[in-house]
Amino acid sequence: MPFTNDFSLFSMFILGLMGAGHCIGMCGGIISGLSAATENRNNQWRKIIGYQFGRVSSYTIIGLIFGLFSEQVNNLLKIPVLPVISAGLLILMGLYLSRLWMALSYFEKLGGFLWKRISPLSKPFLPVRSLRQAIGLGAVWGWLPCGLVYTALGYSVSTASALASMSSMLAFGLGTVPATLLVGAASQKAKAILNSYWLRYPIAVLMIAYGVYILWGLFFAEQVVHHHH
């Protein structure tokens, strides 16, 4: 399939990075909590890294589960449904980043409902006293309903390959790490840079263009459809 290429991984990483402002809003609170809860500085870093590790692992596992599922579905389908979805999501991601159309925020409303079910699972890990609890909290938090994560996941799934789906969720997860590590003053500065037009727009345009390019390839170049690995 022509969809699982380096650009996809790059876009996923960028989505994680650019969604930074968003992640800081959702996860920043936890990280500040992890920081505040521990007097001992190096212990605190261990916890924050443990939390990040748990969260990124969750994304990767989610990518694998959904990727395996989509591989099966794709084998049953004779038409390229998944690539079309992936292209559509790329275009949505671009619109979301450019702030032109925030359709993805609807995903979050759905997410809020799911989160009510998931959040009780994080209780055993709070307050975080050990590295194991930090990893556990991160792992539960990885399932946090966030439009960004859903988009990343939808895009991963559309690769119709468990490995590609897993690696794109890993790339996305790693992209979110810098933002969620920076808390306080640093995060505000990072947020300002990542939210700046000159950074947001070119990337948004790239994503939209890539989505359109995939669709064009699917519908106007028959050989793409027949070109299976």
Can you walk through the features of this model?
The protein has 229 residues and is an all-alpha fold. It has one domain (6-226). Helix content is 79%, strand content 0%. It has eleven helices and no strands. α3 runs parallel beside α6. The mean pLDDT is 78.
* Total count of domains: 1
Strand content: under 5%
Separation, N- and C-terminal Cα atoms: 6 Å
Structural class: mainly alpha
Q: Regions with pLDDT < 50 over 5+ consecutive residues?
A: none
Helix content range of the residues, please?
A: over 70%
The global form is: globular
Run of helices and strands? HHHHHHHHHHH
- Number of beta strands: 0
Average residue-wise pLDDT? 78
Question: Radius of gyration from the CA trace?
Answer: 18 Å
Given the structure, what is the number of helices? Answer: 11
Largest sheet: none
Short description:
The protein is mostly helical. It has eleven helices and no strands. α2 runs antiparallel to α3 and α3 crosses α7.
Q: Layout of SSEs?
A:
Elements (H helix, E strand, L loop, with lengths): L5 H13 L1 H18 L3 H36 L4 H18 L6 H14 L12 H11 L5 H11 L4 H20 L3 H10 L2 H24 L1 H5 L3
